[in-house]
Amino acid sequence: MKILAINPGSTSTKVSYYVDGEIIEEQSISHTAEELKDFQRPIDQIDFRRDILLSFMEEHGIDPKELDAVVGRGGILPPVAAGAFEVNDEMIHYLKHVTKVEHPSNLGAVLADEIKRQGNEKTLALIYDPVSVDQFEDVARVSGLKGIERKSIGHALNMRAVAMKVAREEGLNYNDATLIVAHLGGGNSISIHHKGKMVDSISDDEGPFSTERTGGLPLKYVIALCYENSEKEMMRLYKREGGLKSYAGTSDAREIEARIDGGDEELKVVYDAFIYQIAKGIGGLATVANGQVDRIVLTGGVAHSKRVVSGLTERVGFIAPVVIEAGEHEMIALSKGAERVVLGQETAQKFQYK
């Protein structure tokens, strides 16, 4: 069984080649600002990224005609169920022309289809656990202002994968257990998985600040700031220039920790607040299950930090044992999901808009 997995990021394309149960080749291909400067939107990069993927395949002797499946990270679709979806014309049209959120993951489905077209009709083009997986309970959707609904948007692919992995390794049944998963990276997402469903989450625009995103801000001050800046500038502040970067001038947690160790007391307070807010998010979600949580899982790149892990464990360890799954597990999650579809263990769903 041969599967190609594609995970487009803002400045890189991750690709892996999976054969009979394991990843044989894997690469994160970086894209320079110069290479991307002429593309106004991520979706405009289709040909550029497709050609890079084809070069990767040629370099490693991967014949597209021999692929059983090509699976991409799913993008900003309308709320959808968890699991696999077969890429169809309706999905591609939505990602190219309808979605209101420009995000590099929107390229995942389109690139999977582009590579499939290089192969044969039997090759499956899939996405798995897209960003918009929605298993919220109704009470979790209420925002506090009629007309605005809380959305399930976050690192669903990685969070569901590590939740199921930890449940399995800890002797728990994912479909019976309750786990809180904190994905800590450029943006933070925290989710609670209860009896096999991700029933609530805190996204990077409403919860703790991250290395480069603001998280939730005091609204009355943000309103005033909106009158001083354009929408584009506000989005830049929230997504690219907020969080630790706004205080330290860098989003590199390792550099920040080195400066704290060197005696930067002001930055230490900010970093303590970074950990403090994540702990508050985890604690808040524990109330969804009345405090009955089996495991807390820390994942994402920042979970490599011993300082962050120690600080969070100290604050939330009373809720449940803390398990570390540092880094991202998205490539293996994509590959395993596609494998289940190819083997007939899971049925790919059909995407329909409206």
Automatic annotation (TrEMBL):
Catalytic activity entry: butanoate + ATP = butanoyl phosphate + ADP
Transmembrane portions of the chain: none
Keywords annotated in UniProt: ATP-binding, Cytoplasm, Kinase, Nucleotide-binding, Transferase
Enzyme Commission numbers on file: 2.7.2.7
GO molecular function term, any single one: butyrate kinase activity
Enzyme class (EC, first level): transferase
A Pfam family of this chain: Acetate_kinase
NCBIfam families: butyr_kinase, PRK03011.1-5
Record family assignment: Belongs to the acetokinase family.
Stated name of the protein: Probable butyrate kinase
Organism name: Candidatus Enterococcus moelleringii
Lineage: Bacteria, Bacillati, Bacillota, Bacilli, Lactobacillales
Gene: buk
